[in-house]
Amino acid sequence: MPQQPIELILTRQWASYLAVPVWVMGENGHLSYYNEPAEAVLGRRFDEAGEMPAEELATIFQTTREDGSRLNSESLPINIALLERRPAHLRHRFRGLDGQWRLVDVSAFPIEGQGGRHLGAVAIFWEVEPGTEG
Amino acid sequence: MDVTLWGTRGSLASPGPQTAGYGGNTSCVEVRGADGQLLILDAGTGIRPLSATLGAELRRVDILLTHLHMDHIQGLGFFAGLYKPDLEVHVWGPPSTTLHLRDRLARYLSPPLFPVQMRDLPSRLMLHDVPLSDFEIEAMGIKASLVCHPGPTVGYRISENGKAVVYLPDHEPALGARRFPGDANWTSGFELAEEADLLIHDAQYTPEEYAEHIGWGHSSLPQALAFAAKAAAQEVVTFHHDPQHNDAMLDRMVEQARRAVKLPFTLVGGTEGATFAL
Of A64, B48, B59, B194, which is most buried by a Cβ count within 10 Å? Predict the structure, then answer.
């Protein structure tokens, strides 16, 4: 794994101190880090799960719109922030690694570094409804 | 490649009998290539005495700024090379999203802070945003990366003939880290410093002082040593000494560090005038 840029390092350290769930994605779409509150939402500790490539993420996490209808991955806030380099917000349902479905509000923004470098994206989750067996 | 320390003090020039051993001038390091190329790392007050050594035959000098805090640029206006019409002076600094390097430096190099305008300097002055990647200056390999310090700040790795000197004068890689040092790839500055033959690193504080200055952008000496060990550096020079630390205090800090643990590298207290041949 290559050296991470300082902007991503500091984002990860900032996230590690927050009480709300935060994901940090690298510019290649890898889930580079999620914090302890996110572990509760995702259902697995980051130390166990480690970094995940985008293809693996798509197979692990299931998402639907709030009403349960299909939600394309391109419409997820984190992917909009990552691929379109703009902020995005959406309420949707989400099934974590623990198999629980949760209703979450997600806000995401791109990480734009010095020198015009697009470095990844951050997603912040607010759980609207606690998880239920799906 | 020869490396000479012309200023090792941090934050504020601190002359006087109590600091004469380590020196009171702020950050400035000379790197001479095998063919006489001259790179100057930072333009603290140490650049003024360096100026006196410029040979008449010199046609080009490159000043690589890590960042634009005052202790790293204060000597720039007193660099004799800027007043030599036949000298090409290239100044490199970290990119900004808002202002060109010239505009940022002009805040200092203009009245009322300085009597001479940059545009009136007789040398052939060229300013560059430093590429955040590998590049070359006069056949010397340069790698610059942004590192953890308030405001855009880079560290430098300079390589020639298989040897590398790494310069991280203002660096707080432990900021926010729950374990330090942790994963190498998630440690600020690691890639620059990895297996450096000579690592010049911020060691401003004692652990007790660091606890009161978290987020100010500097390291304690033990943090610097832990970083250097993680990076497998061969020789480590302490740098950016706190203005409050006199020679006796700095001697004690270095001696305590040597005694505390078996260091996997040579530790040298950074003193003005010290030279290193790589």
Answer: B48
